[in-house]
Design brief:
Function: Sigma factors are initiation factors that promote the attachment of RNA polymerase to specific initiation sites and are then released.
Radius of gyration: 42 Å
Strand order of the largest sheet: 1-2
Oligomer: single chain
Organism: Candidatus Falkowbacteria bacterium CG23_combo_of_CG06-09_8_20_14_all_41_10
Shape: elongated
Family: Belongs to the sigma-70 factor family.
Keywords: DNA-binding, Sigma factor, Transcription, Transcription regulation
InterPro entries: RNA_pol_sigma-70_dom (IPR014284), RNA_pol_sigma70 (IPR000943), RNA_pol_sigma70_r1_2 (IPR009042), RNA_pol_sigma70_r2 (IPR007627), RNA_pol_sigma70_r3 (IPR007624), RNA_pol_sigma70_r4 (IPR007630), RNA_pol_sigma_r2 (IPR013325), RNA_pol_sigma_r3/r4-like (IPR013324)
Strand content: under 5%
Number of helices: 18
Length: about 425
């Protein structure tokens, strides 16, 4: 009986039944060792796991002819490992090109995966789905190319975003030029590829501003992406510059403008933010030189600005503080509001006491004549809070001030005889 040699699969197109072949090869290896195959073989894939694989006699003969199959050279393996060390990962497609007949040497393939792991190289899925191992997000200090310590980031959304953009390959100079040419012709797909390939550039710039107050890392990345979109629109490849060099300034400009607009409770114009930053640098320099807080005159001389402008900068550069800021470590949880006196607004108990006083006074003077009520209201400011002189009240009633004094004295005498006067003694 003649056994046909298994047909080789082209390296350019991965075998459509690659997963099935791997399972057959492993089952054949187990059968050759005289061991009973497992009842069920599972492979981590979305497809429904199949039942026990029956090993045909033809497969055993193919395994015996394994020596005739050409294995990947050590030189090619080292080249893949070197490439993976440089960028932090390799793709499944690259592994398929290296092992075009993976079902023929599963054992060697497992050894190579171990070498990749020892070298700190991750395997990124690119749609093939042949690997049972899930790629990990690059982490700082473990071969990751992003340079971000994800262990310190609590938001799952950040991890998911970094994982997604880590799968997108970077563009070479020739690819940038080619895509830019297509973009100028209105190719939206080329524009999208340029944007996606530079999302990692936005993250690397945004994390430098992560310590700034007012915006989270995700917000900074989003603002930087807006700058990236603008850079793609304005980029001219004919000038010979790399896109990343050109886009960096647009991304920085978008992030700094967002910080100026949104980081403060009271918005300050962008040009004034730059002036405030210069003022703070000069202030810190003078503190180190003088060993004390510099005067406004000294800052003015160092900056070369007018004294009035420096005072204005000092005034607007102050940060706002919430009245609910806790003060001290006591159990009462005292806030700043408890220690600041509000001289303009009355306290609730004071407002209630004044309202009761008004009611008592109205109940007393209601027994007087309308003329006497009007004179007392003007003399003591019971209505508008302004006390008028005898001369002013006399002019209002067209009488002398002596006559006003007599009417006032008579009205006060009536009040002293009022029975409800005791209520006013508390005030």
């Amino acid at each position: 009986m003649t056994v046909k040699k298994p047909k080789k699969v082209s390296a350019k197109k991965p075998a459509p039944k690659l997963k099935k072949s791997i399972m057959k090869a492993k089952s054949a290896k187990a059968s050759g060792a005289g061991k009973k195959p497992n009842k069920k073989k599972f492979f981590p894939t979305k497809a429904k796991p199949k039942a026990q694989v029956k090993v045909a006699p033809r497969v055993k003969e193919v395994v015996r002819e394994k020596k005739e199959v050409i294995k990947p050279t050590e030189e090619k393996m080292l080249a893949i490992i070197s490439k993976g060390r440089t960028r932090g990962f390799v793709t499944e497609t690259e592994l398929l090109y290296l092992f075009p007949e993976l079902e023929e040497y599963v054992y060697d393939y497992d050894i190579f995966l171990g070498r990749l792991q020892e070298a700190g190289v991750k395997i990124i899925e690119d749609g093939g789905g042949i690997l049972g191992r899930k790629p990990e997000v690059p982490v700082k200090g473990k071969g990751g190319s992003m340079g971000i310590d994800l262990a310190k980031l609590s938001a799952d959304s950040i991890q998911m975003y970094l994982k997604e953009i880590g799968k997108i390959p970077l563009l070479s100079g020739d690819e940038e030029v080619e895509l830019s040419k297509r973009k100028e012709k209105g190719d939206k797909e080329a524009e999208r590829k340029i944007i996606e390939a530079n999302l990692r550039l936005v993250v690397s710039i945004a994390k430098k501003f992560a310590s700034a107050k007012g915006l989270s890392l995700l917000d900074l990345i989003q603002e930087g992406n807006i700058g990236l979109f603008r850079a793609v629109e304005k980029f001219e490849y004919k000038k010979g510059f790399k896109f990343s060099t050109y886009a960096t300034w647009w991304i920085r400009q978008a992030i700094t403008r967002a910080l100026a607009d949104q980081s403060r409770t009271i918005r300050i114009p962008v040009h004034m933010v730059e002036t405030i930053n210069k003022f703070q640098q000069v202030q810190r320099f003078l503190i180190q030189e003088l060993g004390r807080e510099p005067l406004a005159e000294e800052i003015s001389a160092e900056m070369g600005e007018d004294l009035e402008k420096v005072r204005y900068i000092i005034k607007i550069s102050q940060d706002t503080i919430s009245l609910e800021t806790t003060v001290g470590d006591d159990e009462d949880n005292s806030t700043l509001e408890d220690f600041i006196e509000d001289v303009k607004n009355e306290t609730p108990d004071r407002v209630a006491a004044l309202q009761l006083l008004r009611d008592y006074v109205k109940a007393i003077i209601i027994n007087l004549s309308p003329r006497e009520q009007k004179i007392l209201e003007m003399r003591f400011g019971l209505v508008d809070g302004v006390a008028h002189t005898l001369e002013e009240v006399g002019q209002e009633f067209e009488v002398t001030r002596e006559r006003i004094r007599q009417i006032e004295a008579k009205a006060l005498e009536k009040i002293r005889k009022f029975k409800g006067l005791e209520k006013l003694r508390d005030y």
